[in-house]
Amino acid sequence: MAAEAELTPTQYIGQHLTFNAKAVGDGAFWTLHVDTLATAVLLGISSIGFLWWVVRGATSGVPGKRQAFIELAFDFVDAQVKDIFHGDRRLIAPVALTVFVWVLLMNSMDFLPVDWVAKFTHLFAPEGFRIVPTADVNSTFALALSVWLLMIYFSIAVKGFGGWIHELFCSPFGANPVLWPANFLFNLVEYVSKPLSHSLRLFGNMYAGEIIFLLLWMMAATSLVGTVFASLLGLGWAIFHILIVALQAYIFMMLTIVYLAMAHESH
Fold this sequence. Notes:
By secondary structure, the protein is mainly α.
């Protein structure tokens, strides 16, 4: 605690925003953020395990509280998919539910007090350990790229490779060969912008929330007055952040559904 008290505000924030990074090979290009990967994998296993546990014990009679909660969540997601995607939902709905639950859990890690978490993670990661996977642009971009690849897969599966190429060069301005470059550039911008907007929206909101929590904790360390004000502001921000955490998971899920639905449609 004495060492933490001697930190400047810049050092304090920098300490809590340092990834537990491990270089692969000579470290010239590949670097793994072990904290992001470990936390995301553990939360993914936990969410899938929880859903499997509830489904395994599901009954056709009066559902218990756990089963009722999962049924409400699934019906909610399925209704969103049904409104946007007018086709076979057997894969789209489970993908949307998985994305929503996983992103929601990763976002929720932002509610854990960073200093308390640091006391535990310091035992095995003294150089730093960030507990919010979605505050790492690498994880949000990886999620967005996964959806992007699924979008391309469905587009080819529905239209055929030739149909996909035809749409890429002949839509939306027409099939005249003179317009092929314009069509391709237009579609290229669309293809590039989707994973960028999909990932950066989630990352930006969660990173900003993490910064605000750190600033409030620094205020709490200044004086008794600072502690009181930081506690009040922290409570208000935590309540508001509940909406942000859930809303960002919902938006990420909805964009996933929209992109996959668009892949099934023709211009």
